[in-house]
Structures are given as structure tokens and as C-alpha cells.
């Protein structure tokens, strides 16, 4: 079994993937780093179903949805002609605490630092604290936090630092400031395990179950007064609790959106499932297509 993640070794995705591999996937699992989320998902979707999975971040408590990932998953899930569900989907999600650290060569002086390298997510999670502690540093994006640490380790300048995990500092032999850099305490990222929908995952021994979620994307919501309200009213009428609602541009013109929503389906009995089915059918008769991106358990890493 292969599990693709955003590399190189030492990314937050690597930590989440190691956890997911141990707790959720059939053994043995080979962890394989790739340079971008697009590469990670493409490698998974190009594999014969059952041989490979991907572990990618989908949402952060400070920065919100990781749109690059949702867009790629949506593309894969809508590849099949509707209404047949796609082969691929989200199989599980794990919410993981995230700490970001300033990582540097021993002896770097904060006021002399002019460049800070990291993944855009990490730079955004630390924007304010970074400005306070490294007032002269210009943020520069690279493909991942561990890649940032690797690049700082590969040169001799003390004017460049990286934002990354403690583990990345250890892997690449650099020092770090032990006071975390993220702007809000309680920074967490939700990672999704993506694979063939028919795959059966293990019951995790060390993760806490928090919810069962159906992630849906609504396409073709009528552009008229009350169009979105009445689509949402269908869920309310079926007593279904929405836990996330976001709009995203389709890309072809201004003002043309799809809507992503998460529905809590924990504890739904047969009746609840059939009301979800009838919501989907009802929306279809009004011209709104509902694409399922997965129905999956959400866990929290307590450690
Ligand atoms: O660059 C990484 O380490 C990643 O795995 C992406 C990321 C960055 C920041 C928070 C969560 C995931």
C-alpha cells in the first residue's frame, strides 16, 4: 500500500500521514513524498484503486479551506457522469494540532533576518507574530515547510530563516525558537485520507471520533432571489445539520459559484439517510447537481 503526501520528509503532512498510515490503513504502508498537492493527488488518482491513498490538508483553523485540494478532489469526483458516484473520495479526516517554529542556523540575529521561507499556509498562520519578532523579514513562499527548512540548511547565510515543524528542524540539523510562531493558540489542521470509496479503513486505537461528515458540492444553484436559501432550506427541512458552507468561483465568469457544504451525518438512522437522499433528488429536480466528495468519519488526534 502506498500513501502519498506533500514532502519532503518533515512536513506537517508527513506527520499526519504517518499517523493516518498507522491508525487507519491496511499494513504495510509505504510513505511517498511528492513536491505539490497536485502531484500527491494525481499520483493517487493514477494508481489502480486499492493500491494507493493520499493524505492532504483540507482545512486550517486560522486560514480556512485549502482550496487547491478541494478543487482537485472535486474535479476527480465529478469526472464520472452524474449520478454515478466517483471511484475516489474522502475516506476519513484527522484533526491535528499544528505548531510552527522559526527555524534557523545557530546564531541568527532576529533583526538581521531579511527572508523567511515557508509554505503559504504556514506564512499566513504566523503573519502577525512574524512581523513582531522578525520586523525586517520578507515572506517568501516555497512548496512546503520542510522544503523551506531544507533550503535554509543548504546555504550559509544567517539572514534567512524558515517556518516549519520541530521535527523538520531536527531532520535538517537546524536550531529553532521553542516559542511557537502561530498567531492563534489552538491552531489545528484537518487532514483528509483520500482513496477508493470502497476501501475499508481500520478502527483507530489512538484517535478520538468526533463526527461523521458528508462533504457535498452543489452545482447549478438557480441564480434568482432565494435560489440558495431554498437549496439550504431542503437540508433544514430534512433536519440535517450543516457544519460548513462556502462558495467558490467556477472560474468561467465573475459571479458564477459552486457551494461546498459539510453535513453532519453522525447517528443518522435509515430514515435520516433516506431524507438525505430525497434532499439530493429534490435539488436535482430543481436543476441543482449534488456531487458527493465522501461520507467519512472525522477523528481528532488527542496527543
Ligand atoms: O508544508 C507543510 O508542512 C504541509 O504539510 C502543508 C501545511 C502547511 C501548514 C499547515 C498544515 C499543512
Q: Identify the overall geometry.
A: globular
The major β-sheet equals: 10 strands, mixed
**Architecture of the largest domain, CATH level 2?**
2-Layer Sandwich
Give the N-to-C terminal Cα separation: 26 Å
The beta-strand count equals 15
Low-confidence parts lasting 5 or more residues at pLDDT below 50?
none
Roughly how many Å is the radius of gyration?
21 Å
Helix content: 25-40%
Spell out which ligands are present.
3-phenylpyruvic acid
Q: Please indicate the percent range of residues in DSSP E strands (runs of 2 or more).
A: 25-35%
**Total number of helices:** 9
Structural class: alpha/beta
**The CATH topology of the largest domain:** Alpha-Beta Plaits
SSE series: EHEHEEHEEEHHEHEHEEEHEEHE
CATH class category label of the largest domain = Alpha Beta
Structure description:
- It is a single chain.
- This protein is of the alpha/beta class and 303 residues long.
- The chain folds into two domains: 2-97 and 189-300, ACT domain (Alpha-Beta Plaits, 2-Layer Sandwich), CATH 3.30.70; 101-176, Periplasmic binding protein-like II (D-Maltodextrin-Binding Protein, domain 2).
- The chain is 29% helix and 33% strand.
- The chain is built from nine helices and 15 strands.
- The strands form two sheets. Strands 1, 2, 3, 4, 5, 11, 12, 13, 14 and 15 form a ten-stranded mixed β-sheet that branches. Strands 8-7-9-6-10 form a five-stranded mixed β-sheet.
- A hairpin with a 7-residue loop joins strand 13 and strand 14.
- Helix 2 runs parallel beside helix 3 (67-77).
- The mean pLDDT is 94.
- 3-phenylpyruvic acid (PPY) binds next to helix 1, strand 3, helix 4 and helix 6.
